[in-house]
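Notes from hallway chat w/ T.B., transcribed later so I don't forget. T.B. wanted the structure written out for a chain they're using in a teaching module, and asked if we could keep both sequence and structure tokens in one place. Agreed to drop them here.
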Amino acid sequence: MLTNLTPQPADKILALMQMFREDPRKAKIDLGVGVYRNAEGVTPVMRAVKTAERTLVETQGTKAYTGLAGDPAFAKSMMGLILGDAVDADRTAAIATPGGTGAIRQGLELMRYADKGATIWLSTPTWPNHPSIVKYLGVPMKPYRYFDNATRSVDFAGMLADLAEAKAGDLILLHGCCHNPTGANLTPDQWGQVADLLEKTGAIPFVDIAYQGFGDGLEEDAFGPRLLAKRMPEMIVAASCSKNFGVYRERTGLLMALAPNAEAKAQTQATLNFLNRQNYSFPPDHGARVVQMILDDPAMRADWQSELEDVRLGMLALREQLAGELRQRTNSDQFDFIAHHRGMFSRLGISEDKVTQLREEHGIYMIGDSRMNIAGLNKETVPLLAEAIVAVGV
């Protein structure tokens, strides 16, 4: 049996990380890895997480399983964080999952279980694991235009034109905020137009929100998902706690499914529980419990929000610094889009040959499609990146 296995495509990000580690140059910059790093290049444990974990160790009396859906208190706290009061709890089914990736996988499993004929629409570009999981599960998929490589902004006219072809019951995967890999976000008005289109076509939004708090703020970043929740009879939301709580290795996520009524919600919840049972039985609890404790304790929540805001403002400052350095060196505004993008990522919109040149000649490591992680920079390396970008003539 095992001799019949065939090689799988190499993960480009993991391959890039290996190349970076093997590069002997001291003056090298890693902009490829998709995790937050501070100015010292460290992904820190947030203060509130440490506080919650200490409390948990001292007070937790058992390591017995939670329910198939995970701890209901975690789901309730996360629903409040993401959706606020946009939807009634009696319409919302939810399960804890192993990270945001697990939530996406379970959301697709739910889609396949409910309607094998439905198609999921993915933005061009999107996070590479989206199409990978969809393809693996055998779910029909179609692309929709999203990023204009010339303007480095959202191709909104193209997006609407493509999504107008979606059928009732199709799922439209939307990035809730801080689009990965481009950093180009929908405006509030554009979110409203997307909702109008979904109401017209009967397609169902599937929102992946992994960076809430990294863009314009916790409340601001939830605008799109909350608007859709208010207007759509059905909706799926996959949420990750890896970034905004910094609990990457704890694999903490939540899948929410908004049903049109309480009866449909009950059946949806039972189905989600069943899907959890088939995939991993009971979801991990440590990270979920820590997140719930932070969100439910006023002092810990205030400390978490303060540190998260520092992270957000730090990335914005790096964006503005890089855009300014490039404006000064090129005497043009062609790179001002970097300051307008949000989240950890921006897509420069340069050729793969230029990306290779940046790596080979200047030790600048980014994904081949020119996605760069802004959090991989600091005040000292921003000028080095600007000089390298100008040197290769992009």
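Follow-up for T.B.: The mean pLDDT is 96. Might be a good example for the class.
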